[in-house]
């Protein structure tokens, strides 16, 4: 791999100049803290979420359909028309390329609301885009569309089946629509949760509400030809309905997610259950989460996640929080820790979710983030130590036999969003090692062993080109939509910290990772999701790469990356977000605070190593 050379002479970069940019970005980030004392952020509006919400609300019948629903639907349709891409399709965000899943769901939304004639031009362009995407314009082309959607997700039915179900409910898939959809074995939801991994459910762990609701509507519309299976599913309809109600949060939003909640609601409406408690709560959630412009986001907020990112990004600047502010942040984070078995995933006490709202579920990215943030916020007293021990043990219980860390549930491992993740494992290692000085005896031994297993996992998962690939972040412009810049940055940061703490890390793993990350730098000095030339650089990826390489021998790459960030701050362009996040099986999003957080983290790390007279 060769380090790309600058394309033009660079302006001198002094430490004072970098510090000025860091102060500017830091002040802006601190100003984003809300009146409650933490960061909330703002997720991108989503055409996919908007479409699913419109389908769900349109399937309600009076008296469950309220007078205000018509205005929500009308506003949502107008927003969709306004956000249509020039090629006729829709992407997951307003910054995203058109994709077959979102475009199909928008097409379904206009069908469900019987609005084709009112928006004829938009729908004609949409139909042409879909026919080109599935490679068929013949009569009955809907079958080719169904095949293309299924091929996009492979064996994972978490998203392909709901999309096809929504399109069929909207009358878009022709007379055989229900037969084009793979059945979901909703009866397996009645199996004790300890066996979910062993029975290889065709959906990921967090999609159980969709398994139940959509499985039941598929059974209702197209029952199995096997009489024994039909009998079993009929016998378990009531039990699975009770399970669905038991995992619904009090505000009605499953995982605080508009798509998941919408799929459940439209399924219940299709089986004549619009008046049940689950449906009523789900409809209330959708109405309350609509935005004034007519759109819906994919999720309500990532408040816990962006708050921990904020605290940790600022941790290289001592004294940045005054005492009252750090105390309030610490208490808020302590309040977000789950102290009881979670009713949704049956997760043990001790984890953190991405949000402070009732639909959150503890996971293996937010938990390490919270553990690191608690240490960054000041002295460890008894209550913080207790929270740290619970969180540490929670992560220990999640570690898979391969040494890696999955997102929600240990041991599933067969579908993309339930397997061990390299970015998740790296984050857990950082949290474990940071808290290790607090522990003695058996817990210290357990954590030490877990770190060693995690390091071995990361070394084994390093690709031949020196990169690692993350689970929850991607790049639409990169090959296979992967983001080796993100994954390699996160793993390098962890392995370097492990090495600094005295753990055995193969020097070649770090050296190859540094070389690979340096080689992925774009000629202008920033980073995109991969090293393919001509890809747009982002603040998120550049900030993370600079943070990971700062303090290594790759000073040239760090200097050029730092200059790229500094110039964006000086031009007032360091708040431009990019759709780098995955949410729900290749459902993209961007978060308004991500570029600011990455800029502060990257500049904070770089300034630490810049000499005062560096030119």
What features would you describe in this structure?
By secondary structure, this protein is mainly α. Helix content is 52%, strand content 1%. The radius of gyration is 24 Å and the shape is globular. The longest helix has 21 residues, at 441-461. Among the domains are: 1-31 and 472-615, Glycosyltransferase; 45-297, Glycosyltransferase (Alpha/alpha barrel). Mean pLDDT is 92; it is low at 1-9. It has a two-stranded antiparallel ribbon. Strands 3-4 form a two-stranded antiparallel sheet. A hairpin with a 5-residue loop joins strand 3 and strand 4.
What is the strand content? under 5%
What shape does the CA trace take? globular
Q: Secondary-structure element order, as H and E?
A: HEHHHHHHHHHHHEHHHHHHHHHHEEH
Uncertain regions: pLDDT < 50 for 5+ in a row? 1-9
CATH architecture of the domain at 45-297: Alpha/alpha barrel
Number of helices, where a helix is a run of at least 4 consecutive DSSP H or I residues = 23
Q: How much helix, percentage-wise, in residues?
A: 40-55%
The rounded Rg comes to: 24 Å
The largest beta-sheet arranges its strands as 1-2
CATH topology of the domain at 45-297: Glycosyltransferase
Q: What's the CATH first level of the domain at 45-297?
A: Mainly Alpha
Structural class: mainly alpha
Q: Largest beta sheet, briefly?
A: 2 strands, antiparallel
């Amino acid at each position: 791999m060769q380090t790309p050379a600058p394309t033009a002479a660079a302006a001198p970069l002094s430490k004072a100049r970098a510090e000025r940019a860091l102060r500017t970005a830091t002040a802006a980030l601190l100003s984003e803290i809300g009146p409650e004392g933490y960061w909330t952020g703002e997720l991108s509006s989503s055409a996919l979420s908007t479409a699913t919400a419109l389908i769900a609300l349109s399937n309600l019948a009076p008296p469950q359909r309220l007078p205000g629903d018509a205005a929500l639907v009308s506003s949502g349709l107008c927003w969709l028309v306004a956000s249509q891409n020039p090629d006729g399709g829709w992407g997951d965000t307003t910054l995203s390329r058109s994709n077959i899943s979102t475009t199909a769901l928008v097409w379904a939304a206009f069908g469900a609301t019987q609005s084709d004639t009112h928006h004829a031009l938009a729908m004609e362009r949409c139909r042409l885009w879909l026919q080109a995407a599935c490679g068929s314009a013949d009569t009955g082309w809907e079958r080719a569309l169904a095949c293309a959607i299924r091929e996009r997700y492979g064996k994972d039915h978490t998203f392909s089946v709901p999309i096809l179900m929504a399109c069929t409910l909207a009358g878009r898939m022709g007379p055989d629509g229900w037969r084009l959809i793979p059945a979901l074995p909703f009866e397996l939801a009645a199996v004790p949760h300890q066996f979910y991994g062993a029975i290889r459910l065709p959906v990921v762990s967090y999609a159980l509400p969709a398994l139940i609701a959509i499985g039941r509507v598929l059974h209702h519309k197209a029952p199995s030809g096997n009489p024994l299976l039909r009998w079993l599913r009929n016998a378990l309809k009531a039990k699975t309905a009770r399970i669905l109600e038991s995992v619904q949060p009090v505000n009605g939003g499953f995982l605080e997610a508009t798509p998941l909640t919408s799929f459940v609601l439209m399924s219940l409406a299709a089986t004549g259950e619009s008046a049940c408690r689950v449906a009523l709560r789900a409809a209330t959630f959708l109405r309350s989460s609509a935005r004034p412009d007519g759109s819906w986001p994919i999720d309500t907020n990532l408040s816990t996640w962006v708050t921990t990112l904020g605290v940790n990004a600022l941790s290289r600047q001592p004294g940045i929080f005054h005492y009252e502010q750090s105390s309030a942040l610490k208490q808020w984070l302590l309040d977000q820790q789950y102290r009881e078995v979670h009713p949704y995933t049956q997760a043990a006490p001790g984890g953190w979710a991405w949000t402070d709202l009732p639909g959150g579920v503890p996971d293996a990215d937010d938990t390490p983030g919270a553990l690191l943030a608690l240490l960054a916020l000041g002295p460890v007293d008894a209550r913080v130590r207790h929270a740290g021990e619970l969180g540490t043990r929670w992560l220990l219980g999640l570690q898979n036999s391969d040494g890696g860390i999955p997102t929600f549930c240990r041991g599933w491992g067969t579908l993309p969003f339930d397997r061990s993740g390299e970015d998740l494992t790296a984050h857990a290692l950082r949290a474990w090692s940071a808290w290790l000085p607090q522990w003695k005896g058996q817990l210290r031994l357990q954590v030490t062993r877990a770190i060693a297993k995690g390091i071995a996992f990361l070394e084994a998962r390093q690709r031949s080109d020196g990169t690692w690939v993350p689970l929850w972040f991607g790049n639409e412009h990169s090959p296979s939509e992967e983001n080796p810049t993100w994954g390699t940055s996160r793993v390098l940061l962890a392995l370097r910290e492990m090495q600094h703490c005295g753990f055995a890390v193969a020097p070649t793993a770090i050296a190859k990772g540094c070389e690979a990350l340096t080689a992925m730098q774009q000629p202008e000095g920033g980073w995109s999701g991969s090293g393919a030339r001509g890809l747009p650089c982002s603040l998120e990826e550049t900030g993370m790469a600079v943070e990971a390489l700062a303090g290594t021998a790759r000073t040239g790459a760090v200097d050029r990356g730092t200059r790229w960030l500094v110039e964006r701050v000086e031009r007032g362009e360091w708040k431009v977000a990019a759709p780098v996040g995955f949410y729900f099986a290749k459902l993209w999003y961007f978060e308004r605070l991500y570029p600011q957080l990455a800029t502060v983290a990257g500049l904070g790390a770089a300034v630490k190593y810049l000499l005062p007279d560096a030119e």
